[in-house]
Amino acid sequence: MTKFKILITDGLDQSGLDVLRSQADVDDRRDISAEDLLKAIPEYDGLIVRGRTKVTASALEAATRLKAIGRAGVGVDNIDLDAAKKRNVTVVNAPMSTSIAVAELTFGLMLALAREIPRADAGMKQGKWLKKGLEGVELNGKTLGVIGFGRIGVELGKRAAAFGMNVIAYDPLISEDEISKRGAEPVSIQDLYAWSDFISLHLPLNVQTRDMIGPLAFSQMKDGARIVCAARGGIIDESALVAALNSGKVAGAALDVYAVEPPGETETVLHPKVIAMPHIGAQTAEAQSRASEDIANEVLSALQNKPLRWKVN
Questions:
Q1: Catalytically annotated residue among 65, 261, 286, 309
Q2: pTM of the full predicted structure?
Q3: Number of Cβ within a 10 Å radius of residue 114
């Protein structure tokens, strides 16, 4: 059997490394620079990345042996899929591994927004007793609008329903009957904006979704809506979000992703009505273990021309 050579650039859980090393030669070069990647990649048959490494057309042109790229997670917007296809490089991901982790973080952010948990904690650590200024809202009886009702959206909907929320959803890629079967009331995007007390985004970043939540979308929302995004940065127009927060149109936002990462001390991150997280949606021990094993097996299958579960291109 041919022993393949695989490069890992953003780290991988030990369980995934064990799977790979049982059948391939593996180099773990986490935090490799873009320049060094260009120099190294001609040696490898397989490449496994997370969100940090950018697999550009230039990198793919240099990758003369490369047969498969694995994304240890869901989003593949850091991989030039067109360039990969032109060079017959198979791209696979691990979409099932992080769904629970992201859904749980999203629900936690909804609770944090509703009860202003970060501000309460910060006040206590500063010796302040902010009880009178921290009147929140209950999730029970509120309407949650989920934009993108795939695996993560469905898991979020289950948790919201358990808290007594009314769950509505919009997804142009899923039929209304299927949305209903998955546990939400299907609605138009305009009705979702108008009816939702909380809005959660679960979409990929692409030409259609970039800056989707901008001035027009904010103008159609219910006054005092709260927004959560643990999907992809760039879906929300951050300058429009700041304007909506300043005007009071939006009561609060919780973000785990940004148009530029890390974002630095931007107006969005520093806004008092924003809960800012450092893109940790998938960062649980369980999710990382699942993602590592899933992508290790999928990349090996791609290199060995075996059937694939999660081929992206």
A1: 261
A2: 0.86
A3: 19
